[in-house]
Specification:
The chain is built from 13 helices and no strands. It is mainly alpha-helical and 323 residues long. The radius of gyration is 23 Å and the shape is globular. The chain starts with a helix and ends in a 10-residue tail after the last helix.
Length: 323
């Protein structure tokens, strides 16, 4: 009887691994067919692998990853399989392990961000062929992005004289090149936070179907000593020494991303604490997307939480006992 049950579980796990691999490859391919929606759908690639891993274990997750890589390697190329594993396979392994063990949200998100950033740099090196010159790979990638932006501006009628925008384009290119490591990590950080939020909500909605685990609540709380790294990055940026200025700029970008997530966590807590209407939360998200000032405001909220501890101040204290 036990052997029969194990056999059925193995068959079910294998079937779900095959299904997850085809679903993930379909999401991955959508980025090539749909310009905007496809890119958003391709970001969901790790989710089927994590779901299979939570249901059937790490071995089934690795089987699904191997099948997905083969589906891409056989008709396309080995490069496509490697790119897929770097961008989506490795983050899926980190997400599954963090959720199964109940690791704090900060550690899971930062771990996923590191894997995504390193994988992104490796993909750029693979695509450009400049393994020994990563800066060249970044420059070529930025040049391609800026060329696309200029072409789009010309089609929309925003820019008619390319020569007139040479100087601003060069300044923008230099600024993006200097801040690229920090921007890459912050983009990976936000992507990792999105993965963790989605997966935690799915586990809470279907706990029996996703391994019956108890995920930790998404409570983002950075150590207080990190504020000195923020101050030190600001000092480096103001020195005027080129390489120190670049190091300080990237430090500020990374830390603002971390404090932005802390500010979001505080804002979500306050919304729940004071039972504010849902439409205000929707309006806040819209403002964050279209108004950079509000993004900085949320990051400032996370930074000043070091001194004000907003989540503790918002909880009413019990009345004092009188003698």
């Amino acid at each position: 009887m036990d052997a029969g049950v194990r056999g059925r579980r193995w068959m079910a796990g294998t079937a779900e691994a095959v299904l997850a691999s085809f679903l993930a490859v379909g999401l991955f391919a959508s980025g090539s067919f749909f310009p905007v929606l496809g890119i958003a759908l391709s970001l969901l690639c790790p989710l089927p692998f994590v779901a299979v891993g939570l249901r059937h274990g790490r071995a089934t997750l690795l089987l699904a990853l191997a099948l997905a890589a083969l589906i891409l390697i056989v008709p396309l190329s080995t490069l496509q399989g490697i790119v897929f594993l770097l961008e989506f396979g490795a983050p899926a392994v980190v997400l599954e392990a963090g959720l199964r063990r109940g690791v704090r949200s900060e550690a899971v998100v930062i771990g996923v961000a590191v894997v995504l950033a390193v994988g992104g740099m490796a993909v750029l090196a693979f695509a450009s062929g400049h393994w020994d010159r990563p800066v060249t790979a970044i420059e070529e990638h930025l040049d391609g992005l800026l060329s696309d932006m200029e072409a789009l501006s010309a089609r929309m009628g925003i820019s008619d004289a390319p020569a007139a925008v040479d100087a601003p384009t060069r300044r923008l290119r230099a600024a993006l090149l200097a801040a690229f490591p920090g921007l890459l990590f912050v983009g990976s950080l936000l992507t990792g936070a999105g993965y963790v939020l989605v997966l935690q909500s799915l586990v809470r909605r279907w706990p029996a179907q996703l391994g019956a685990i108890q995920p930790a609540a998404f409570r983002w709380e950075l150590p207080e000593l990190l504020v000195w790294a923020f101050i030190g990055s600001g000092v480096l940026f103001l020195t005027g020494v080129p390489w120190l200025r670049v190091a300080g700029l990237n430090g500020l970008v990374v830390l603002l991303g971390l404090y932005f997530l802390q500010g979001l966590s505080i804002a979500a807590f306050l919304f729940r604490r004071f039972q504010l209407p849902r439409f205000l939360a929707t309006l806040s998200v819209i403002l964050l997307v279209f108004q950079p000032f509000f993004t900085l405001l949320v990051a400032g909220l996370g930074l000043f939480d070091v001194w004000f501890a907003f989540r503790r101040l918002s909880i009413p204290r019990p009345p004092r006992q009188t003698q």
